[in-house]
Amino acid sequence: MSPNLQAELGAALRAVLDEMGATTSQLIAVLDEEREALNVADAKALNRAGEAKQMLMRRLEQLDVERLHLCSTSAEAAQQVEARWQELLKSLAVCRDQNQHNGALVGQRLTQVRRALAVLTGNATQERTYGQNGSLREAHRSVQLAQA
Questions:
Q1: Contacts 24+ apart (CB under 8 A), 6-13
Q2: Residue 136 confidence (pLDDT) above 80
Q3: Number of domains forming the structure of the chain
C-alpha cells in the first residue's frame, strides 16, 4: 500500500474515532438528562432523552461499521489509533454503566406504580404465584388441572 493511501486511511480512521468520541460525550450528557428526568418523573424530558439516546446509538453503530472497515483495510492505521480506541472504550463503559443505572431506576418506578395500582384495585394483599406456563400470576384463580 502506498504511503499516501496509508496516510489517508489513518486520517480517516482518526476522524471516525474523533466523531465517535464526540458522539459518546453527547450520549453521556443525554444519559445524565435521562437520569434527571427519571428522578423528577418528567415524562416529556424522558421521551426527549430516549429519542436522543436512540439517535446517538444509531450514529455510534454507523461509525463503528466505518471504523471496522478502515481497521480491516489498514492494520497499520488501526495500530496507530489503538490508544485512542482504548480511551473511547472507557467512555463507552461509562455510558453502559449510566444506562444500566437508569434502567434500574425505571425498574424501581415500575414496581412503585404496580404497587400503587394494586392498592387502588384492591389486589394488594393477594400473593403472586406462577401459572402452568411459568408466567407470573397476580391473583389466585381456578385453573383446570385435568380433563376427564
A1: 6/74, 6/76, 6/77, 9/70, 9/73, 9/74, 9/77, 10/74, 10/76, 10/77, 10/80, 10/81, 12/70, 13/67, 13/70, 13/71, 13/74, 13/77, 13/78, 13/80, 13/81
A2: no
A3: 1
